[in-house]
Every structure is written in structure tokens, then in C-alpha cells.
Amino acid sequence: MRRGSWKIRILIGLAIVAFAFFKRCNNKEENPYTGRVQNINMTPDQEIAIGLQSAPEMAQQHGGLYPDERMQSLVDAVGKKLVNNSIARETPYEYDFHLLADDSAINAFALPGGQCFITYALFSQLTEAQLAGVLGHEIGHVIGRHSAERIAESNFWQTLTMGASVGGDMGGLVSGIGQNTLLKNGRGDELESDELGVLFMIQAGYDPYEMIKVMEILKTAAGPNRVPEFQSTHPDPENRIEMIKEAIEKYSGR
């Protein structure tokens, strides 16, 4: 390839990289509920729309909704109690709590905008207070805008990788750095949600120490062959327990 062509490729690559950083800087905003400055490229209304659109498909992937209305009513009641007694009630998000029929996967998750899910496999092992800890954690993901932040960060690293690939042979390296960064950020999301979950439990009148028992349930469910923390978006349960204890002391003075 001619030398002039290499110069053009480098200039184009640099332009793409500069655009990625420019866009990222312009997307910075402070989360009014956590005070954390984040890279966000969508509005709360867009988050709500994404969550509502994705909810049926996510439910279907876990066997649909659990058919017992009495148990679903308990999930609704605990979720609403957490929302009504916390800063969550001041957010624009539409909180819905879904009990999924999946009786094998121990899991809970939240979509952007307020759609929160828990599988029957996990629900069946919890007391009401422990259920509050799980749902409080998922509400924390919504308020923390973690999905929206991960989407924006992923877009940033994809653009950066493209620029590095056009300008030279560094695309793979940049992509690897980006994936590692997203993993670390994902673990930070979990810890922030744990802390918010503790706060919401206390505000709703639940014993926050029950959150520690939830971590022990998750640790047992993962078994001895769980994915090492450096390869996982979730911190190790032992590390989470220590952070939860600190959050309990912070918010309740125990």
C-alpha cells in the first residue's frame, strides 16, 4: 500500500477516535439520584420505552410469568413498599415487578426504566425481608441508570475500536481494553446497587442484614466452580458481603 494511503487511513482513524471522545464528553451528566457523573446517551423516557418493549421477550426466555397470583401479589407489595419509602418514588421510572416461572435459574435482573424480574427458583428460597433485598438491589440498578450507562460505554468503545482498526492494527488491543473496562464497571454497578438496596430496605422497615443472607444463598447456588471475579461482571459474594456490612453501618449506625 502506498505511503499516502497509510497517512489517509491514520487521519481517518484519528478523526474517528476524536469523535468518540468528543461525543463521550458531551454525553456526561450527573445522576440526580446518586450524584454520580455518568456517560448517558438516552433520556429516561427512552429507557422506559426500551424496558417496556423488552419485558415480554425477557419473560418468555424464563418460561413466562409464574401463574400463582398470590405470590405475584407479594412481589408487587414488597416492590411497591420499597419504591414508596425511598427516592425511587421521585424518579420518572415506571416500576413493575415480575415473578418468572423459571424454577431452575436462580436469578433477578432489571431492564432500563423500571421493569424488575425475579425467577421462582430464587424467590422460593427467600423470606420477605430477603425478597426486599433482592428487589431493592434491582431498583438500585434502575435508579443508577446502569443499563443506559453500559449501552453508552459500549458504543464508545466500539467507535474507538473502529478508529484504531482504520488507523492501524490496534483494534484488537483497544477492544480488549474496552471489554475489561466494561467488566470492571459492571462490578461497580453491582456494588452501588447493593448499597442502594440496603438503604431502601432500612427506609422500608426491613432488616438490612437479611441482604447478607441473600449473598450466602447466591454463593451456595454458584457452587465451588463459580466464575472468578476478574472474569465476571459480578463481584465475588464475599466481597459484596463486606461492602453490604459497610453500607449497613453507614445508613443505620449499627
UniProtKB/TrEMBL annotation:
Domain Peptidase M48: start-end pairs: 74-247
GO cellular component, as recorded: membrane
Keyword match Hydrolase? yes
Keyword Ribosomal protein recorded: no
What are the GO MF terms of this UniProt record? metal ion binding; metalloendopeptidase activity
Q: Tell me which Gene Ontology terms the entry assigns under biological process.
A: proteolysis involved in protein catabolic process
List, alphabetically, the InterPro entries matched. Mito/Outer_Membr_Metalloprot, Peptidase_M48
Instruction: Report the cofactor remark.
Output: Binds 1 zinc ion per subunit.
Q: Which cofactor does it need?
A: Zn(2+)
Q: Which UniProt keywords apply?
A: Hydrolase, Metal-binding, Metalloprotease, Protease, Zinc
Record family assignment: Belongs to the peptidase M48 family.
Q: What is this protein called?
A: Peptidase M48 domain-containing protein
